[in-house]
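Note to self: the last two entries modelled the partners one at a time, which told us nothing about the interface. This time every component goes in together.
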Amino acid sequence: QKEVEQDPGPLSVPEGAIVSLNCTYSNSAFQYFMWYRQYSRKGPELLMYTYSSGNKEDGRFTAQVDKSSKYISLFIRDSQPSDSATYLCAMGHSGYALNFGKGTSLLVTP
Amino acid sequence: DVKVTQSSRYLVKRTGEKVFLECVQDMDHENMFWYRQDPGLGLRLIYFSYDVKMKEKGDIPEGYSVSREKKERFSLILESASTNQTSMYLCASRRGTDTQYFGPGTRLTVL
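The predicted structure of the combined assembly is written out below.
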């Protein structure tokens, strides 16, 4: 079983929809969680960083962490065509290298 | 703003050539990482370094070596490039458990 599981998609939604992206993990030692957005042929760009269970909001983005279920989510409100990208979840503990999901491809259609 | 830069965006090399990929970060981060990214395989860690002259193997170190002579610079070396090393190479840096920042990537093609 991989430590981090993420559905690769593709996920296609109409403009304005609420998008839900998810990752599950198996290692209960993970303490901090990140979401990245990656456009085609570019490096990943950090969207959200969370260190505890609960919700964190930044503009149209909300990151949710449920440590008891080992489940994290990223919600995108009022999705735009410019949100079309691959979204990667990442998580870690102590100062070790991060564990990444394989990414979910999102397409927002006008 | 944290900045991680990579020496080349696109690189084309021949089989057997020695290839150097350089990464520089400007935020005094102690940890630096090299990944490769391939369709369907996601990000895979090649090597990381937690201090000057210190290095640790990642998941796929075979065929690669690294050098970290200065804190801000982390180099990835392909001693003898092969076609199966054609990939997107991503450098990243981080302080402790803080956020990790990526460079723009180098798309390497080995012919």
